[in-house]
Write a structure and sequence with these properties.
The chain is mainly α. The protein has six helices and no strands.
């Protein structure tokens, strides 16, 4: 479990540092009065014990860290304070978020983030930390169909079609 704590602290210290202001000056009090941060860490501990990869834990940890930080900026620290309207506001925040490169978050990225939150709230509800799962009906962004990286030109497609031997049953 020491490795798990290191992983959690790696993202938690970075993303939740403004939530952590230990009175005694000791490092590592990541959930100082912030129930949402404490629950996020507990969820990640559970998530890792379920056999998910380190990358999955890191990704979920990053997403939850960003969410808990966003909540704290709005004075929300308890998971029971989070309702559907707050999650909708966060979804709207994600859709308008501008990255360092000047672009908005892709719908696929938003969907991954919101899926992480859905898992977190499902876990909270199953353990009776919350009575109602506010993420249950949270709508995820639509992801359009993308073309493969290489699409045949008309000439290439015709070349393939012309290779079929119509005199034989299997071509």
């Amino acid at each position: 479990m020491a490795l798990l704590k290191d992983v959690i602290q790696r993202w938690a210290i970075k993303k939740l540092k403004n939530l952590s202001s230990p009175a005694d000056g000791a490092d590592g009090d990541l959930d100082n009065g912030n129930e949402a941060a404490k629950m996020a860490i507990e969820y990640l501990e559970w998530f890792l014990t379920r056999g998910y990869s380190q990358g999955s834990v890191d990704t979920r940890g990053y997403h939850l860290g960003e969410f808990v930080n966003w909540l704290a900026e709005r004075g929300i620290t308890r998971v029971r304070e989070i309702d559907k309207s707050i999650l909708e506001r966060y979804r709207s925040h994600l859709s308008h978020h501008i990255k360092k490169d000047g672009h908005c978050l892709a719908n696929k990225t938003q969907k991954v983030i919101l899926t992480s939150l859905r898992g977190f709230f499902r876990w909270l509800a199953k353990r009776n930390y919350i009575l109602i799962n506010p993420a249950l009906e949270l709508e995820l962004p639509k992801i359009g169909n993308t073309l493969p990286p290489h699409v045949l030109t008309l000439r290439e497609a015709e070349s393939i079609m012309n290779q079929v031997n119509l005199s034989k049953p299997l071509g």
